[in-house]
Specification:
This protein has about 500 residues and is α/β, with parallel strands linked by helices. Helix content is about 60%, strand content about 10%. Keywords: ATP-binding, Membrane, Nucleotide-binding, Transmembrane, Transmembrane helix, Transport.
């Protein structure tokens, strides 16, 4: 049996194995920490952008296609979560290997600094020259991609109208043009990236050739160990691969930072609802407001354009003067496009007037905090949407201000008057009861919520259009009886 005698070679071997394992372990910890922190930051940015969009005024939301918003909240978030994290992690690993290789070469032969320093300077200069251009192209590509996605969603949603009006050729041409423009920007970005790779390959070729010349010149003057020469040349020959991969992942990370810029714009730029017209200092809101419920409009005009800027050619309402006495029950009647929904939006401050004054009890609603206004001026839209993952009771009384008996009494009375039979159990899930947006049951839920609150001002925006004529009459009689002292504005055709 031969005894094992450790030698210096064995010590070196074990040392290199230990260093390799330590490098792998530390790299794993670094990648894990980087991934977790970037995911947390991405989630926070996405949540901030979504919250900002939710509270944005209608004048802002109506000027941005739905496909554009969905592109930023889905595609850009995916690019940050998947592409940016992976590209950043890989770029840092490859560039660290590149720098460690250059450092090892300098340690082995300090004279190689005359090659390494100018070479690194040339690489950095090329990156700084091409990086802004690549980012600007990627920004343009992202905008064009959002426009293409918006066009695709609009074509799909309007497929029926396109078929009816026989405009299929125009729709195909419109969509194809958007896709072609987006592809052109993508090809231009790819071409810029390839030119950068060609220039970096040329720089690395010069570094390799110059390193060989320096090593040969140094060996002719000072004898160098073949081990050192082999180590230097092996390191310089693997540098192009590390540089190419590091550059590719770096530009990919730069590309994906465009998604961060777009999400940041949604998290900071959209105005908050109520910031379009800030409350004035005149007229403090009393604790009893609104005491009567009188509504008065003086030369009110409203437009759905950008920022609510009035355009007389497309104004939804123009120079309207109206007074609704307190406790009056009125009906707003008109054909589609007459401005009925715009009037409702003005009462709830979903839309601010372009000019004129809308006052409740002689107090302009722009002087009233939004939460206070919408807690006293309630509305039942024609497409009531039940609260997701909630019971019947949660939909009728979300804040639990009333007893189960009161909620059941109101729901039972409305169901009977509407001819829907007895009231459903309050603890039944709304989705399980097949209550969807715009159905008769959903509208009765919204109406029951209003009857329990007994507000001073109630707006019914075609709230009973899914019921029959006789059921509509019976339910409205019950509403007028319950809200006898309140101001009711009923919008209908």
């Amino acid at each position: 049996m031969v005894d094992f005698v450790p030698t210096r070679a064995h010590a070196y071997a074990f040392g290199f194995v230990a260093l390799g394992l330590a490098e792998a372990f530390l790299a794993h910890l670094f990648c894990l920490h980087l991934t977790v922190k970037m995911l947390q930051a991405s989630h926070g940015l996405w949540e901030c952008a979504l919250r900002r969009l939710v509270v944005a005024p209608m004048s802002f939301l109506q000027t941005i296609p739905l496909g554009t918003m969905m592109d930023r909240l889905s595609r850009d978030v995916y690019m940050v979560d998947r592409g940016l994290i992976e590209a950043t992690r890989s770029a840092m690993l490859h560039l660290s290997r590149l720098l460690s290789g250059l450092s090892l070469m300098l340690v082995m032969q300090l004279k190689l600094a005359v090659v390494v320093v100018p070479g690194l300077a040339a690489v950095i200069a090329m990156m700084l020259h091409y990086a802004p251009r690549l980012k600007s192209i990627r920004c343009r590509e992202a905008d064009l991609r959002a426009h293409a996605n918006a066009a695709s969603s609009e074509v799909i949603e309007g497929a029926d109208c396109i078929y009816v009006y026989k405009t299929e050729p125009w729709a195909r041409s419109f969509l194809g043009e958007r896709l072609d423009v987006c592809s052109n920007a993508r090809f231009l970005a790819a071409a810029n990236l390839r030119w950068l790779e060609v220039r970096l390959d040329g720089i690395m070729t010069c570094i390799i050739a110059t390193t060989g010349l320096v090593v040969v010149w140094t060996s002719s003057r000072i004898p160098l160990s073949p081990t050192i020469v082999g180590l230097i040349m092996s390191q310089v020959l693997v540098l192009p691969a590390s540089l190419r991969q590091g550059m590719r992942f770096s530009t990919s990370a730069l590309h994906h930072t465009v998604a961060i810029d777009r999400l940041v714009s949604y998290a900071t730029e959209p105005p908050r609802e109520g910031e379009v017209l800030r409350p004035s200092s005149s007229g403090a809101v009393g604790s009893s407001w609104p005491a009567a419920g009188e509504i008065r409009l003086e030369k009110v005009s409203a437009s759905h354009g950008q920022g609510g800027i009035l355009d007389t050619a497309t104004a939804a309402l123009h120079d309207i003067t109206l007074e609704i006495p307190a406790g009056m029950h009125v009906a707003v009647v008109g054909p589609t496009g007459a401005g009925k929904s715009t009037f409702v939006s003005l009462l709830l401050r979903l839309l601010d007037p372009s000019s004129g004054t809308l006052a409740v009890d002689d107090l302009s609603i722009t002087d009233v905090p939004l939460q206070r206004l919408r807690s006293h001026v309630t509305a039942v839209p024609h497409d009531v949407v039940p609260i997701p993952c909630s019971t019947i009771r949660d939909n009728v009384d979300p804040e639990r201000r009333h007893s189960d008996a009161d909620v059941y009494r109101v729901m039972s009375a409305l169901d009977t008057l509407a001819g829907l039979g007895g009231a459903t159990p309050l603890d039944l899930d709304a989705a399980a009861n097949c209550i969807s947006a715009g159905t008769a049951r959903a509208q009765l839920l919204g109406l029951a919520r209003v009857l329990l609150q007994e507000p001073r001002i109630c707006v019914l925006d075609e709230a009973l259009d899914t019921l029959g004529v006789s059921a509509d009459v019976r339910v409205m009689q019950r509403v007028r009886k319950t809200l006898w002292g309140s101001t009711i504005v009923a919008v209908t055709h």
